[in-house]
Amino acid sequence: MIYQLADEERGLVLVDVRTGECHVLNPPGMVTWSVLSSGGTRDDAVSALASRYPAVPGERLRADVDALLDDLHQVGLVPVAAPPAEPPFRAQPVDVPVAAGPPGRPGLRAALFLGVAAAVLLLLPFRVAHRLALRAGRDRRPLDPATARRMAADVGRAAGWFPGRAACLQISLATVLWAGCRGRRAEWCFGVLPDPYTFHAWVEAGGERVTTGGEPSYHRLRFLP
Question: CA angle, 111 as apex, 107 and 115 as ends, to 5°?
Fold first, then answer.
């Protein structure tokens, strides 16, 4: 399961839920990915690049596509490896910076779910956390935004007391799991800001984004079926 955000000027961001890794492709890499992910071949990708970059020699474009295919294969994003070549661009993993929630005295349930979320993210593969978040809200009514804000704020206060790593990824997952145990659905969302790329996780409830009020407007990564 992969999430993506495409930008014609800056390129493409991919988040692989199976591994929790983020990868950034520049505009030529985005063109190649678009062709391959829609069922195209290596030669189709070279042709698409040649149409967009007519001044670049064909041999250079073929080497670029082979190099990117090899990189994508190494991180498990394409099924077949291509012949290696020296690349002018590569898909690079990017760390996800996160910020802790506001200090204060939290409720017991908020602290409990934060501990569960932190343990899941620390001890289990990211895909397991993602699956738990999906199942927590399956066949449940949406959590109303006002309640979601109160819950997220309470979990954020718990993060101020938490002895381990507790930031946006842990806080948002804890809120989603807590909502599921209350018989309600909140969405676990991921987003990105470019130049330089920074990443963020948050909760959406009832179609509204639940934020702390001081964070920038991150572009939401969309699920790629």
Answer: 170
pLDDT value of position 2 = 67
Bond before 194 cis per omega within 30 degrees: no
12-32 confidence digits (pLDDT tens): 888 777 777 778 888 888 888
pTM summary value: 0.63
Q: First and final CA of the chain: distance in angstroms?
A: 7
Measured in whole angstroms, the distance separating CA 22 from the mean position of its chain's CA atoms is 7
Q: Which of 114, 98, 55 is nearest to 193 (CA)?
A: 98
DSSP assignment string, 16-28: ETTTTEEEEE-HH
Q: How confident is the model at residue 163 (pLDDT cuts 50, 70, 90)?
A: confident
> Given the structure tokens 């079926």, which residue do they identify?
225
